[in-house]
Design a protein that fits this description.
Number of domains of chain B: 2
Largest sheet of chain B: 4 strands, parallel
Largest interface: A-B, 35 and 24 residues
Strand content of chain A: 25-35%
Low-confidence stretches of chain B: none
CATH architecture of the largest domain in chain B: 3-Layer(aba) Sandwich
Radius of gyration of chain B: 22 Å
Largest sheet of chain A: 5 strands, mixed, barrel
Distance between the termini of chain A: 53 Å
Helix content of chain B: 40-55%
Low-confidence stretches of chain A: none
Oligomer: heterodimer
Shape of chain B: globular
Order of helices and strands of chain B: HHHEEEHEHEHEH
Strand order of the largest sheet of chain A: 1-2-3-5-4
Structural class of chain A: alpha+beta
Order of helices and strands of chain A: EEEHEEHHHEEEEEHHH
Number of helices of chain A: 7
Mean pLDDT of chain A: 90
């Protein structure tokens, strides 16, 4: 057991589902081991409310667990202050990001960068209520890069030319922009995404469309429920 | 131990109860058959009857044998204040405190996009109908203090705002008789954020 024991690993719970009466199966994003599945035994008991409070999504925690691969067993968890408190719209953005990570990350595939990007994103999310959309777009860009699907935004591959800010483009997820008069994204937005400055509403709108296209491609047709939920919440 | 036949079926059937494993189920089955046959008959009849007759209340979606539950149809209850809870068990708990004299609305779950649970599954359309009718003046959000519970409260809160209805969230913090030394950091930080002035 001790051969494969991990102690006090920085982590975040992405999703938990009930298992039997008082246990949980957790999808956890750890710093050094990537996404792992953990079995948290008897944490829903009355005696263990402190532990189940720690195991809420978006809490920075330190987890100890043992086991080889597959489903490992949680042995201890503690909060790693400062606590991150998400409210309102930010909470829904958090769900969206968790859903993305749940489906895009492979289990037991180490990627320390993603933990750091995620943590920074959550910290920014709780402070910037007005910039949620910009934060999300930059998080998505960084996530794609860390996953090895980084976007090529500055070069029109079909004509082998640099992207020009006045022109319109289409986008092919695993290749890049292609010039087209009916394109949905302007060269200007592509270049500002590259430079990490999104200012106008139009640029934000185009960037959202682009990210949706790219993530739909990598999610291979899987629908994101949190996206639908956010739409329902803010349309009504 | 032979597991087929009627006795085996009964033991298997009892295992569907929460907290009952094969061993307890076995004890229950033998007890019912050897020592308390009338009790067993009564239990079987009641179970069948409840399954046939108990359904959701048309107004608050709690479990009841009538069209409207005893709380919704009680003339003394304040119909303009609605308390939103996650499960029928929560209605019982709040009723025991005897501090609330309004009516309830039971969601039977909470918003959880990662589990595929959205507003449709929680009967929020019915709630919206009630809010839009103008009879409701205030809602109290008593969903659990989990991330999903908070998300649900926010969603219902937005609905209330759309119809200009006052919405409040139950407080969370230090429990009665609790000593700060033994309270976890999360609860304590909630308690500090939700502090109130002494008048």
């Amino acid at each position: 057991m001790s051969d494969h024991a991990i102690y006090l690993e920085p982590a975040f719970v992405l999703h938990s589902r009930a298992y039997r009466e008082s246990s949980l199966i957790l999808d956890v994003l750890t710093q050094r081991l990537g996404k792992v599945s953990l079995l948290a035994k008897a944490v829903k008991n009355k005696k263990n409310t402190e532990i189940s409070a720690c195991l809420q999504p978006f809490n920075p925690i330190l987890v100890s667990f043992y086991g080889n691969t597959g489903l490992r067993v949680l042995s201890d968890v503690e909060l790693e202050p400062p606590k991150i408190l998400l409210e309102g719209k930010a909470l829904y953005c958090g769900f969206y990001v968790n859903e993305l990570l749940k489906y895009l990350l492979h289990t037991d595939d180490p990627c320390p960068e993603i933990y750091l990007i995620y943590r920074r994103f959550l910290e920014q999310l709780q402070e910037n209520f007005d910039n949620l959309e910009t934060l999300l777009r930059f998080f998505e860009l960084q996530l794609l890069e860390a996953l090895g699907y980084g976007l090529q935004l500055t070069h029109d591959f079909s004509q082998d030319k640099a992207v020009v800010s006045e022109k319109k483009y289409h986008f092919i997820p695993d290749r890049g922009p292609v010039e087209s008069k009916q394109g949905f994204i302007s060269g200007d937005t592509l270049l500002s995404l590259q430079n990490k400055v999104l200012k106008s509403r139009q640029a934000l709108f185009e960037a959202k469309k682009l990210m949706r296209l790219v993530f739909d491609f990598y999610l291979q047709g899987r629908q994101l429920r949190s996206r639908t939920l956010i739409k329902q919440l803010y349309q009504s | 131990m032979q597991r087929n036949g009627l006795l085996g079926q009964l033991i298997q059937g009892l295992c569907c109860l929460p907290g009952v494993g094969p061993k307890s189920a076995q004890r229950m089955a033998f007890h019912l058959l050897q020592r308390d046959r009338t009790g067993a008959e009564q239990l079987a009849k009641t179970l069948l009857q409840t399954l046939d007759n108990i359904d959701y209340c048309q107004q608050c979606r709690t479990l009841t044998e009538d069209k409207l539950c005893s709380i919704c149809s009680h003339p003394g209850r304040d119909q303009s204040t609605v308390c939103i809870v996650e499960s029928p068990a929560d209605v019982w708990v709040v009723e025991q405190t005897a501090v609330f004299n309004g009516v309830y609305f039971v969601l039977h779950g909470r918003l959880s996009p990662l589990d595929g649970i959205g507003p449709e599954e929680l009967g929020l359309e019915l709630l919206e109908q009630q809010l839009s009718s103008g009879a409701v003046k205030e809602i109290i959000l008593a969903t659990n203090s989990t991330v999903e519970g908070e998300a649900t409260a926010h969603f219902v809160g937005e609905l209330a705002r759309k119809y200009q209805i006052k919405a409040s969230r139950i407080a969370h913090g230090v429990p009665m008789g609790g000593e700060l030394e033994y309270i976890d950091a999360g609860t304590l930080s909630h308690a500090f954020n939700g502090r109130r002035e002494i008048d």
